[in-house]
TrEMBL record:
One GO molecular-function entry: potassium ion transmembrane transporter activity
Alphabetical keyword list: Ion transport, NAD, Potassium, Potassium transport, Transport
InterPro entries: K_uptake_TrkA (IPR006036), NAD(P)-bd_dom_sf (IPR036291), RCK_C (IPR006037), RCK_C_sf (IPR036721), RCK_N (IPR003148), Trk_Ktr_HKT_K-transport (IPR050721)
Pfam families xref list: TrkA_C, TrkA_N
Native source species: Alloprevotella rava F0323
Name of this protein: Trk system potassium uptake protein TrkA
Domain RCK N-terminal, first and last residues per copy: 1-121
Length: 447
């Protein structure tokens, strides 16, 4: 496929890297030569140093032959204009990143489609939902519903005292077990585990299970002492916090600390709710946090525009006794640092945005893909085709590469875990887990 990306920021460069691993024809446009040189020297990508909103630049980049044209510059208006122009110049499909949640509403989809913008990506919406999913299950680092909520992917950090440590997986995760270990992050390494592997203290582990069995995992992972969250503090009242508050459960109360009085007024106009208190003060002030009752909060979320401030604020909240902290990270360089500091949950809205776009063109009929922020791994949802290699033998005899594992599937609307004895059938929807960059190996099994 020919794919053109306008904007070489975090979203654009992440997308370019993902697409290049699939051997697509990628052109990346940006006015910042330094950004282009950084990625162009390491990946098979054509770079174009020019204004991506210029008609002649869009034409020269090959919009006429583009299967997908993606606009992810920092300017929302430019992104919409670029997509409209690219569509008129012949691009088959266009995707624009926006900063206004109204544009992302399903009711406005047809309006944008008529103007040449086929898809709208609003990163703050996905980030807000993910934040609230993490808070509602405070004992997890990530809680990701899969296959129409039939299955769930849980990320948990296991520590001394967990019943599942230091035992080969073949002995604790048997064919009839209610969970499947699909990925392990151990220090700097990501492991797709097999029967001889063991879970060790401080491992960050991804489990596939059902929501019904999640309480069992909470028990065996040694997380019974984590409290349910009824009070949460937010540092920063920007768009991500605004969207997170839209998902606030009825039983939860929130305090939002924001220094911009205009944002405070905006949030108060949106959420005239006695469960949400907006405070026009600097939430980094420890004396203020103590005065506002942080000792009664079970969760602290930092969503300012500074990744470093978010990480440090979460560390302070931990010192003040908050058990669950969530940091919004805009700079991928902070992910490893935040993990080493034991911050808790990490939300990268730019990676979330890239994931939403990436799944649109993957091979193997993949209908959804998600990068595991903590681990260098991807999880892909795909449909088994009639006569494909995956249908010829039980999973244990498919000779899958060591970098891949199958976690769960849905057949006739019912979700179940996959084990070595599972015989896949045409039409099954399967969740595959793989080391980052190896998704392209799925094609020969499922096509």
């Amino acid at each position: 496929m020919k794919i053109i990306i306008a904007g070489a920021g975090s979203v654009g460069t992440h997308l370019a890297k993902l697409f290049s691993l699939e051997n697509h024809d990628i052109t990346l446009i940006d006015e910042d030569m330094a950004r282009l040189m950084d990625i162009g020297n390491n990946f098979d990508i054509l770079t174009l140093n020019d204004n991506p909103s210029s008609i002649h630049v869009i034409r020269d980049a090959g919009a006429r032959h583009a299967d997908l044209f993606i606009a992810v510059t920092p300017d929302e208006a430019h992104n919409l204009t670029i997509c409209m122009l690219a569509k008129q110049l012949g691009a088959k499909q266009t995707v624009a990143r926006v900063n206004n949640h109204e544009y992302a509403l399903e009711s406005n989809r047809e309006l944008f489609s008529r103007t040449g913008v086929d898809s709208i990506i609003y990163p703050e919406m996905a980030a807000g939902k993910e934040i609230m999913d993490n808070i509602r299950r405070s004992w997890t680092r990530q809680w990701i519903p899969m296959l129409n909520d039939q299955l769930v992917l849980l990320c948990i950090k296991v520590r001394t005292g967990a019943r599942i440590l230091n035992v080969p997986l073949r002995d604790i995760s048997k064919p009839d077990s209610p969970y499947h270990v699909v990925a392990i992050k151990r220090r700097e390494d990501t492991i797709i585990p097999h029967g001889n592997d063991c879970l060790l203290d401080q491992d960050v582990v991804y489990f596939m299970t059902t929501e019904r069995e999640a309480s069992y995992l909470k028990e065996i992972a040694g997380k019974q002492d984590y409290p349910d969250v009824s009070n949460v503090f937010f540092l920063g009242g920007g768009n991500t916090t605004e969207r997170a508050l839209a998902f606030l459960p009825d039983y939860m109360h929130a305090k939002v600390f924001e220094t911009d009085p205009h944002r405070i007024e905006h949030l108060q106009s949106l959420y005239d709710d006695n469960r949400i208190m907006c405070i026009n003060e600097d939430g980094r002030n420890i004396d203020l946090l103590e005065e506002e009752g942080i000792h009664r909060a079970q969760a602290f979320v930092a969503t300012t525009s500074s990744s470093s401030e978010n990480v440090l604020s979460c560390l302070n909240a931990k010192k003040l006794g908050v058990r669950k902290t969530v940091a919004l990270i805009d700079n991928s360089n902070y992910v490893t640092m935040a993990q080493s500091l034991d911050i808790g949950s990490i939300i990268d809205k730019k990676t979330l945005a890239a994931d939403r776009i990436y799944h649109r063109i993957l091979k193997s009929d993949v209908t959804n893909v998600k990068s595991l922020i903590i681990a260098a791994a991807d999880v892909a949802e795909l449909v088994v085709k009639e006569g494909s290699r995956a249908t010829r033998h039980p999973v244990r005899d498919l000779n899958l590469p060591s970098t891949l594992t199958l976690g769960g599937m849905m057949r006739n609307g019912v979700g179940s875990l996959i084990n070595g004895m599972t015989q896949l059938q045409a039409g099954d929807t399967v969740m595959a887990f793989c080391i980052e960059g190896s998704i392209n190996k799925l094609g020969k099994y499922f096509n």
